[in-house]
């Protein structure tokens, strides 16, 4: 069984859908740890309700990203974590974790990347007046939502959509697509060293 840590900064609806998928047997993984950078985030409560340990840190208490990522890396190593699953984590992952978990950090983003990277992708899509948006699951690199795309699903924006209704419909896709996609990745062992697998 794959040991995963979920990184989140907010309410944690994607965290919950991953936990639910594990409990229902749809996702063959074990959520060993929640990593959260906001002490008042609702996702911490969700972790408690599900008996999942949380590592909560305040980035301002550290001198640098390297310093707090080293602390996170220690927590992950202690638990034998194999994959980092970002679910509404609002910080860029730095070199420390990227090196340690190369090709094993996965993110979900509420747009059809490369369109509307960064914060408030749903608001960006509405402001731009586009008729199509969706959800992207991708590997994480050092850029902002720039890593290799694993899966995408599109969604038509109607004239009646508001940021709220669109967010709701996007969450529905996210909660269904993320667990399925993660299971596919775990089944094939990710893209780790795939270029060397000529054996």
From TrEMBL:
<feature type="binding site">
    <location>
        <position position="65"/>
    </location>
    <ligand>
        <name>(6R)-10-formyltetrahydrofolate</name>
    </ligand>
</feature>
<dbReference type="Pfam" id="PF00551">
    <property type="entry name" value="Formyl_trans_N"/>
</dbReference>
<feature type="binding site">
    <location>
        <begin position="90"/>
        <end position="93"/>
    </location>
    <ligand>
        <name>(6R)-10-formyltetrahydrofolate</name>
    </ligand>
</feature>
<feature type="binding site">
    <location>
        <begin position="12"/>
        <end position="14"/>
    </location>
    <ligand>
        <name>N(1)-(5-phospho-beta-D-ribosyl)glycinamide</name>
    </ligand>
</feature>
<dbReference type="InterPro" id="IPR001555">
    <property type="entry name" value="GART_AS"/>
</dbReference>
<dbReference type="GO" id="GO:0004644">
    <property type="term" value="F:phosphoribosylglycinamide formyltransferase activity"/>
</dbReference>
<keyword id="KW-0658">Purine biosynthesis</keyword>
<comment type="similarity">
    <text>Belongs to the GART family.</text>
</comment>
<dbReference type="InterPro" id="IPR004607">
    <property type="entry name" value="GART"/>
</dbReference>
<keyword id="KW-0808">Transferase</keyword>
<feature type="binding site">
    <location>
        <position position="107"/>
    </location>
    <ligand>
        <name>(6R)-10-formyltetrahydrofolate</name>
    </ligand>
</feature>
<feature type="site" description="Raises pKa of active site His">
    <location>
        <position position="145"/>
    </location>
</feature>
<dbReference type="InterPro" id="IPR036477">
    <property type="entry name" value="Formyl_transf_N_sf"/>
</dbReference>
<feature type="active site" description="Proton donor">
    <location>
        <position position="109"/>
    </location>
</feature>
<feature type="domain" description="Formyl transferase N-terminal">
    <location>
        <begin position="3"/>
        <end position="180"/>
    </location>
</feature>
<comment type="function">
    <text>Catalyzes the transfer of a formyl group from 10-formyltetrahydrofolate to 5-phospho-ribosyl-glycinamide (GAR), producing 5-phospho-ribosyl-N-formylglycinamide (FGAR) and tetrahydrofolate.</text>
</comment>
<dbReference type="GO" id="GO:0005829">
    <property type="term" value="C:cytosol"/>
</dbReference>
<comment type="pathway">
    <text>Purine metabolism; IMP biosynthesis via de novo pathway; N(2)-formyl-N(1)-(5-phospho-D-ribosyl)glycinamide from N(1)-(5-phospho-D-ribosyl)glycinamide (10-formyl THF route): step 1/1.</text>
</comment>
<dbReference type="InterPro" id="IPR002376">
    <property type="entry name" value="Formyl_transf_N"/>
</dbReference>
<dbReference type="GO" id="GO:0006189">
    <property type="term" value="P:'de novo' IMP biosynthetic process"/>
</dbReference>
<protein>
    <recommendedName>
        <fullName>Phosphoribosylglycinamide formyltransferase</fullName>
        <ecNumber>2.1.2.2</ecNumber>
    </recommendedName>
</protein>
């Amino acid at each position: 069984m794959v040991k995963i840590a979920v990184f989140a900064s907010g309410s944690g609806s994607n965290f919950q859908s991953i936990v639910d998928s594990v409990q229902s047997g749809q996702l063959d993984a074990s959520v060993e740890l929640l990593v959260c950078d906001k002490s008042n985030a609702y996702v911490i409560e969700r972790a408690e309700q599900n008996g999942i340990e949380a590592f909560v840190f305040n980035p301002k208490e550290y001198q640098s990203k390297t310093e707090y990522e080293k602390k996170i890396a220690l927590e992950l190593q202690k638990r034998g974590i194999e994959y980092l699953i970002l679910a509404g984590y609002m910080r860029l992952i730095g070199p420390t974790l990227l090196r340690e978990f190369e090709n094993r950090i996965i993110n979900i983003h509420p747009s059809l990347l490369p369109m509307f990277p960064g914060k408030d992708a749903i608001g960006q899509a509405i402001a731009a007046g586009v008729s199509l948006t969706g959800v992207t699951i991708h590997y994480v690199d050092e850029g902002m939502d720039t890593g290799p795309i694993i899966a995408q699903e599109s969604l038509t924006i109607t004239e009646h959509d508001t940021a709220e209704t669109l967010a709701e419909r996007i969450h529905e896709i996210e909660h269904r697509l993320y667990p399925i996609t993660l299971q596919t990745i775990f089944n094939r062992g990710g893209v780790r060293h795939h270029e060397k697998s000529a054996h």
